[in-house]
Structures are given as structure tokens and as C-alpha cells.
Design goal:
The chain is an alpha/beta fold. 15% of the residues lie in helices and 29% in strands. The protein has 6 helices and 45 strands. The strands form 8 sheets. The protein has a 12-stranded mixed β-sheet with strand order 1-2-3-5-8-11-14-17-20-23-26-29. The chain has a 10-stranded parallel β-sheet with strand order 4-6-9-12-15-18-21-24-27-30, with no helix packed on it. Strand 42 and strand 43 form a beta hairpin. Helix 2 runs antiparallel to helix 3 and helix 4 packs antiparallel against helix 6. The protein is globular, with a radius of gyration of 30 Å.
Length: 714
């Protein structure tokens, strides 16, 4: 028997688990099941030497330690309800369960980045519904365990005043690199009570890995007028222990309540080590629903690796929020989040409420807008900003020099609600988002405006802390009266030429040259957006001809016409009067060994390889080539992974990997159309490559939408 001296003279028992068995018998062993019972009931598990000693009554906090003979990971597998036994007893008395007291185990010592902990006590819940359930009124701490395989929750918090979850691997194996997930990681459903809950913390030894769940990594829920104050800090949520490889939960963190519950979450923080990495999850990184007012999300990396620079994106939104007021980021030291590489918007505000203050964050390379106020897509400014909706659909500012030549300040104007004052925040960007109202990568300055005049107008000057070089600037406006933050302002790049056709009536092909490929399709309907590429065409009611020596060009006419195409292939002629889908891709001559243009795994993989070769050969791109090559390499890897998953009849996984392919192609095109690329290489070099990536991206989107596994991977 061991004792620890407690404040006030009370003694707490240290109950030492010395067996991986699951029995509850007077057999000279102390199992985890017996230890929990001993702590709950304050009775010994038996009279023989080696049995669990009795715990002490609340409020004394007992300790369950481990001293199990042998080497390596010691795995405890309760014979739970799904195997004809029963799950482990609920924890109903204050206790600390400390796996790091097992000889050879080691808490994490890295303040940020990869977690180097060596936990040696594994709780395999493959025969259990709930692995551990806390139903105690005092303080409960669970640390140093590997908890996986549970059919329901790894840790279920039903009630209690204070619960601390520290230094665990939840949903992974003991190496922290393989998913062994539960249905949920940490789940709470407090009814008619209150709970103070902390997952992780700013100190290295408190950090958890919470990944591999088929549902939610951390689920915060309450009912019957309950309250939860949850602090979530320092964790890796949705990745392996390095933070660089996705081990997805479906959603990283989710929260919702009912009635008049109060759920106040602090996710991250400005202190060193407080931020989480919330990346790699199948859907949202963070989903905050009803009754989460006054929550704060600061200092996190959402969609990136621990460096904040590499993609480990969440599949849908980085942050998906619907109950304000809510604070996301801040301009103080350590308050801003990095929100990047997510499949859709960085932050999506799905609400009719006010008070979503989004400040000082870094947004880049998200599949949608950086900040998107419902409805999805850019909400254009309206005179004096009377429209309702998410954050009142706050108007965004207009900068006088968004294509910034360099200097120490920028001026602009805002039109919004008359008589209000606003905080303008300005951001520098490497490139523009394709929406042209997209994101803001580096926060460079802010100013509070004077009150808007009777027409809702106000001018402003934002002075930077120091002069900055030439860049692309975007800005947001936050109404200081209610905390409403706008979407980002416009970014000054015109769209590239795109042409789409819907119905082909006749086609004639004639070979006349060996140096160019030109296609002119005849259609009944077409849509064209003009721009940065040059198209030369002539058309009449019966003929249309287009030629070029440097790039593929498509021209559509409104009436049925004939088509002339100059190619390097032998002369051929064909005529068709049936409806056919528009071809969105062009296989480079000889580059894909006859693989047809189509949204198939083989076609996408082939064209990615061809595009990679063409990119490497474009010497004009200079030092951009390694970055572009890396992006295409990742797209190829993800394509192969998607095809493998589909062949194994894992359609959901295949679609997730195709989503990653799409994001890599978006990144590739963005980079080629960005400011640095425009200064480095001529458009005649960049645009054909970017357009080829766009077409592959279109086919990847189509395949992701219609894929049937395993037949499509055959």
C-alpha cells in the first residue's frame, strides 16, 4: 500500500495496477477494473498480497498508478458489453489515473511541433462501448494513456466539477502514427449540471493526440440548462503525433447545446504552447453550433502542419460557426490563428446573428473565401449596408492601392452604416484568391476610422509598423458597435479566359500544320469570361476558324457551325449530330500513350505526370519550379491513394483523397498566376500550364462527384 500526504492532513491512496487482466477476484492481482472500483468504493479488491488497496473518500483525490511487469506497451482489454462482459465501472470519486507512472514511459517534452511522449499503458476498447466514463463530483485527471478502439467514446464525461485530460494518445496506437479510433474521442453530455473541462494545456506534458475518430475528436454538448467551460490547448487534433500526417476525425471539435445551456469554449490562446493543431479532419476543423456564445478561438493552426506552412487541410471548413458573439483571433501577440489549406472557406459564418469578430488571422490557400458570411460566396457591397444576415453582411473596404507598389501606408474608403466607427485591418498577400475577394495572409496594420457620414462613407489611412515591399493588399472592416467583421476586400487580378460549351452539333477536322493545336467547337449555348489570355477568332453563321502557335484556344459561337482544327495528326474527318459532353482536357501529343480524355483515375494521373514534365522543362519559371513540382508530386501521390482506396471499395476515403488532389491543383494554378510568377515568367509560359491544371482539376471534381468504387478503379 502507498500513501500520499495531502493538504489539510488527509491521506490519499495510491492504487497500483499490476496486471493487464480484467478480472475482479481475490487472486493476488490488481486490475484496472478493480482499481476503479477500489477508488470509487474505498474498499480493497481482496485480502491477498498484490490486490488493490482501498481508496479514500471524497474530496480526497486518489491515484491509480501502474507497475505491470514486462517490456514495451502493456495492453489492457476489458471484456466489455459487446463481448458479453461489462464496460469498466463509471468513475464516481475523485481520482488521478496516471499511465506515466509505468516504468519506461515518458511524457512529452516538446512545447510545440511533434509530440515525443512514450505512453506504455494502452486501453483497448474493441470489446467495450465506453472506454472510460467520468461521473464524479470532484477533480478527475486522466493522463498518460493510449485509448483506442472504443465503440462509442474513448472518454465520456457525464458530470463533475473539474476534469483534466492530459498527455494521452486518444484514437491512435501507442506509436501515435496509426489510427485505432473510437466512434468519438472525448465526448461530454452534461445534463442539469456544470462541468469545467480541460483537454491538454500550455505545458508540454499536457498535450494530447486526439485523432482517428469516425465521429468527433472533442464533442462538447449539454442539455437541461447546463453549463460547460471547456479549455482545449496544445493538442494535435486530426493528425498523427508529428502533426504532419492526417489521421482524421470526422470533425476536430464540435459543440452544441439546447434550452438555455451555456457552452463557453477557449480553443487555443495567446500564451506560448496554448495553440492547437486542428488539421486533417474529414469535414470541419471546428464546428460551433448553438449556445456557444462568448467562446474564443486564438493562436491555433487550422489546416496546416505545426510549422504553419505545409498543407494538412481539413476537408470542408476550417472554422464553421453559427452562434455569436464569438472571437476568432486578435491583433495581440499570439492571438491570431493560421487558417489555411482547408477544402472550403477558412471561416464560414452560418448565422443570422451579429458579433463574429474575426481579427489578425492569417488566411491563405483555402478552397473557398478566407472569411465567408452566409450565403456562400462573395457578398457584394450595398449602399449604406442595410442588408441583414451573418454579421449583417458587413461591407468590406476598398483600398486605393490593392496592387501595392511598396511603402509605409495605404489609403482607402468604406461605405457602411451611417454614424458607425470601424476597425480596418490590412493584410499582405503573395497572390490573389481566384474569387478575387479571397484571403489575407499577413496582417500588416490597422486603424479605427472616424464615424461614417450621413451617406455611410468614411476615408482612412492605415500606417504600417514599418515599410513593406510591393505586395497585394486586402482588408477587412469590423463594426466597433457590434463586432461584425466583413469578408475580405477585392484583390486586383483579372480572371483568366474560360469557355464552356454544352451542345455540339457538327464537327469537321482537317490537318494543316505540324506546330499548333487549335480547336473550335460549335455549340448552341456558351459562356465566356474574358481576360488575361489572347484569343483570335473569326466567325460567321456557318464557319468559325481559330489558330495559334503557342497554346490551345477554344472559341464558341451561338449558332450551329462547322469547325476547322489544325493539328499534327493525319488528316481525318468526322461528323456527329448527337449531344455530347464538353471535353475539358487535352492529352499532350504522345504524352499519355493513348489514354483518353476523361474524368478517370488513369487519365488524371497521366496528365499530372505530363504536366509535371512540362513544368520542369519551363526554365523561365526559375526557382518557382521546385515548389510547383512539389505540389504536382503531392497531387500524384493523392491520386494514387484515391485509386487504391477506391479499389478497396472505400469510396469515402477515395473522395477525400480526390479533394486533396483538387486543393493541390488549386495551389499550383494560384502560384502560377500569383504576383511572383508574373514577375518571373511571361504569360505565354505560365498560362498554358495553369490552364492545363484547371482542366485536370475540373475532371478531378467530376470524378469525386460521380465515382463508383471499386469499379471505377478497375
Amino acid at each position: 500500500m502507498g500513501f500520499l500526504l495531502m493538504a489539510g492532513g488527509a491521506f490519499a491512496s495510491t492504487i497500483t495496477v499490476n496486471s493487464t487482466a480484467d478480472a475482479a477476484a481475490d487472486d493476488g492481482a490488481c486490475t484496472l477494473r478493480e482499481a476503479i472500483i477500489a477508488a470509487n468504493t474505498n474498499t480493497a479488491s481482496g485480502a491477498m498480497a498484490g490486490e488493490c488497496v482501498a481508496g479514500e473518500a471524497s474530496p480526497t483525490v486518489d491515484t491509480i498508478a501502474f507497475d505491470i511487469a514486462g517490456s514495451g506497451v502493456r495492453t489492457i482489454t476489458p471484456v466489455g458489453g459487446s463481448a458479453g462482459g461489462s464496460d469498466l465501472q463509471f468513475i464516481t470519486d475523485p481520482v488521478t489515473i496516471d499511465g506515466y507512472m509505468q516504468t519506461g514511459s515518458q511524457p512529452n517534452t516538446n512545447a510545440t511541433g511533434a509530440i515525443n511522449a512514450v505512453p506504455l499503458i494502452e486501453l483497448d476498447g474493441s470489446s467495450s462501448s465506453h472506454c472510460l466514463v467520468v461521473f464524479a463530483p470532484g477533480t478527475v485527471t486522466i493522463r498518460g494513456l493510449v485509448i483506442n478502439g472504443c465503440h462509442s467514446e474513448a472518454i465520456d464525461l457525464e458530470s463533475g466539477s473539474t476534469t483534466l485530460i492530459e498527455g494521452n494518445f486518444i484514437g491512435t496506437d501507442a506509436t501515435g502514427t496509426m489510427a485505432r479510433g473510437a466512434s468519438s474521442g472525448i465526448s461530454m453530455f452534461v445534463q442539469n449540471g456544470g462541468l469545467n473541462f480541460t483537454a491538454g494545456g500550455p505545458t508540454p506534458d499536457a498535450r494530447n493526440v486526439i485523432s482517428g475518430s469516425s465521429s468527433v475528436g472533442i464533442a462538447v454538448a449539454a442539455n437541461l440548462n447546463s453549463s460547460i467551460a471547456a479549455t482545449i490547448q496544445g493538442n494535435l487534433i486530426g493528425t498523427d503525433k508529428t502533426g504532419t500526417v492526417a489521421l482524421p476525425n470526422q470533425i476536430g471539435i464540435a459543440s452544441f447545446g439546447a434550452g438555455s445551456d451555456s457552452l463557453v469554449l477557449t480553443i487555443g490562446g495567446s500564451a506560448a504552447g496554448a495553440g492547437n493543431v486542428i488539421s486533417g479532419n474529414t469535414l470541419d476543423g471546428v464546428l460551433l453550433g448553438a449556445f456557444t456564445k462568448n467562446s474564443v478561438i486564438q493562436g491555433n493552426l487550422v489546416g496546416t502542419d505545426p510549422s504553419g506552412t505545409m498543407a494538412v487541410g481539413n476537408g470542408r471548413f476550417g472554422l464553421h460557426v453559427s452562434d455569436g458573439p464569438l472571437t476568432i483571433g486578435g491583433t495581440g501577440a499570439g492571438e491570431g490563428n493560421v487558417i489555411a489549406f482547408n477544402g472550403f472557406a477558412g471561416v464560414f459564418v452560418e448565422s443570422g446573428e451579429d458579433g463574429f469578430r474575426i481579427s489578425g488571422n492569417s488566411f491563405f490557400e483555402n478552397g473557398g473565401l478566407g472569411i465567408d458570411l452566409e450565403p456562400a460566396g462573395v457578398n457584394m457591397n450595398d449602399a449604406m449596408d442595410p442588408d441583414p444576415g451573418a454579421n449583417g453582411r458587413q461591407n468590406f473596404p476598398e483600398l486605393n492601392a490593392p496592387d501595392f507598389p511598396g511603402g509605409s501606408s495605404v489609403t482607402g474608403t468604406l461605405n457602411s452604416t451611417p454614424g458607425h466607427t470601424f476597425r480596418i485591418e490590412v493584410f499582405a498577400n503573395d497572390e490573389c484568391d481566384p474569387t478575387l475577394n479571397g484571403e489575407g495572409k499577413t496582417f500588416v496594420g490597422t486603424v479605427d476610422t472616424a464615424a461614417t457620414d450621413a451617406n455611410g462613407d468614411v476615408g482612412f489611412t492605415v500606417t504600417f509598423g514599418q515599410p513593406i515591399g510591393a505586395t497585394l493588399l486586402t482588408a477587412t472592416a469590423t463594426d466597433l458597435a457590434n463586432g461584425d467583421t466583413s469578408e475580405f476586400s477585392a484583390c486586383p487580378v483579372a480572371p483568366t479566359t474560360t469557355t464552356t460549351s454544352t451542345t455540339t452539333t457538327s464537327t469537321t477536322e482537317t490537318s494543316t500544320t505540324e506546330t499548333s493545336t487549335t480547336t473550335t467547337s460549335t455549340t448552341e449555348t456558351s459562356t465566356t469570361t474574358s481576360s488575361t489570355t489572347t484569343t483570335s477568332s473569326t466567325s460567321t453563321s456557318t464557319t468559325a476558324t481559330s489558330t495559334t502557335s503557342t497554346s490551345t484556344t477554344t472559341t464558341s459561337t451561338e449558332a450551329p457551325t462547322s469547325t476547322t482544327s489544325t493539328t499534327s495528326t493525319p488528316t481525318s474527318s468526322s461528323t456527329s449530330t448527337s449531344l455530347q459532353p464538353t471535353t475539358t482536357t487535352t492529352v499532350p501529343a504522345g504524352g499519355c500513350d493513348g489514354v483518353p480524355d476523361a474524368p478517370t483515375f488513369g487519365s488524371i494521373r497521366c496528365r499530372l505526370e505530363a504536366l509535371r514534365i512540362a513544368t520542369a522543362a519551363a526554365s523561365e519559371l526559375g526557382d518557382l519550379r521546385p515548389k510547383l513540382d512539389h505540389t504536382l508530386g503531392k497531387a500524384l501521390d493523392r491520386t494514387a491513394a484515391a485509386e487504391t482506396a477506391c479499389a478497396s471499395d472505400k469510396a469515402k476515403s477515395a473522395k477525400a483523397r480526390l479533394g486533396q488532389v483538387i486543393r493541390q491543383l488549386i495551389q499550383y494554378s494560384h502560384r502560377l498566376r500569383g504576383k511572383k510568377a508574373r514577375k518571373t515568367a511571361p504569360e505565354s509560359v505560365r498560362e498554358p500550364l495553369a490552364s492545363a491544371a484547371d482542366r485536370i482539376q475540373d475532371d478531378a471534381k467530376t470524378l469525386r462527384r460521380v465515382v463508383r468504387c471499386p469499379s471505377d478503379a478497375a
